[in-house]
Automatic annotation (TrEMBL), chains A, B:
InterPro entries: Ntn_hydrolases_N, Proteasome_sua/b, UCP009120_prtse. GO terms for biological process: proteolysis. It comes from Qipengyuania xiapuensis. This is Proteasome-type protease. Pfam families: Proteasome (PF00227). One of its GO terms (cellular component) is proteasome complex.
Amino acid sequence: MTYCVGMKLDKGLVLMSDTRTNSGVDNISVFRKMFTWQVPGDRIITVMTAGNLATTQAVISQLEERTKEPENRDNALLKSPTMFQVATEVGNLMRGIISERQDANGAKGRGRFTASIIVAGQIQGMEPRLFMVYPEGNFIEASLDTPFFQIGETKYGRPIIIRGYDRHMSLEDGVKLLMVSFDSTLKANLSVGLPLDLQVIARDTFEAGHQHRVTHEDPYFQAISSSWGDALKNAFHSLPDYAFLKRED
Amino acid sequence: MTYCVGMKLDKGLVLMSDTRTNSGVDNISVFRKMFTWQVPGDRIITVMTAGNLATTQAVISQLEERTKEPENRDNALLKSPTMFQVATEVGNLMRGIISERQDANGAKGRGRFTASIIVAGQIQGMEPRLFMVYPEGNFIEASLDTPFFQIGETKYGRPIIIRGYDRHMSLEDGVKLLMVSFDSTLKANLSVGLPLDLQVIARDTFEAGHQHRVTHEDPYFQAISSSWGDALKNAFHSLPDYAFLKRED
């Protein structure tokens, strides 16, 4: 499995991904799932991937190649006039790779080889944008109503984001929120694993801001992980107590 | 979907289930998923069901019939000498109903009609016990290491139980913990819905203790639901803050 989150705040974008891939619980590996292309001062584009690793690696490799031969391509990431076109490009590429593999495997391939991708970034003169791209190649964009996207093992870490999110929060608090969300997920699902990749894209900087790899030894993540249990218990005890007598029916 | 939790505390058992069944999001209904049989002073047995509704209703109906004709049955719930035998009975019954339906539908039936059941209770002279019964008819028992079982949509509500559980907590706090877990699940998955059924089985009472149906108008559940958001935010802000400068790499 995988867990990646992209979150849109007023001050920019906060992105985090795990690095575990598995084929059964007895075959796990570490693979980076976050990839960035940038032209400092002009644009920064980051994608995070979940799903079939052969598919997502093929998507990334082909995106890389296109960035290296811009003169031969009209649709290279680094030349796309908008983030919308970047998401379209990623979607078409992924849909093509998935359907090629499925066709080659006939009935056996149906529903396999799929993947999902979060596309985030900002291009000079435009707003920061955040998309979720489906295996079919279509995509949706984050809005004020749904300001974050998760892919992979999304459930364990979702309640705290729903409750903790505030579009006005600082980028640092955004990082803290995702650390807690990842901690809850790591505690519940072995197929999501450390290290984590973190990237912060501050609005109107057009370059990768803070980047960090969170390992087992990371003191901040350790502090979050150990103090969140106590903080949750305190939160729990701060709630009104239940009483049997008054409520018997 | 469904969400049911059975939790074992030193002071007894706390059980909670939702009542939503759905066949697509455009076809939802309310069905009770918690069923109790008791002989006050001798035993109390409660089961909670998840999965195919036709299967679980058949299991419950057949268990009901067996309780009504004890003289013709050696294996009636109300005569079983141990909770282990109750779980065995429930498992065999469910496995039989599922495999009958699957056989009748051939290849189309494979993997369908399945269900899971939580069996909880206490019989005079023995400890309170809690089992999770699988569609195959086998089952596992809760222990000190894994003192609670969830069936249905288990993921959203799991992190708070993992962090909040304490075997020494009062039965009232157990109820509060499950209220929070259900609130997180209800907020995230439409296929889990109010009203909720709550039952508390205090140790060595051998009867249904506190029972309650939690509706939309329930003031306690409303208070938990609205104050948990604030409590979580406070917990979040009590954690150490993240700082970019020191951690840049």
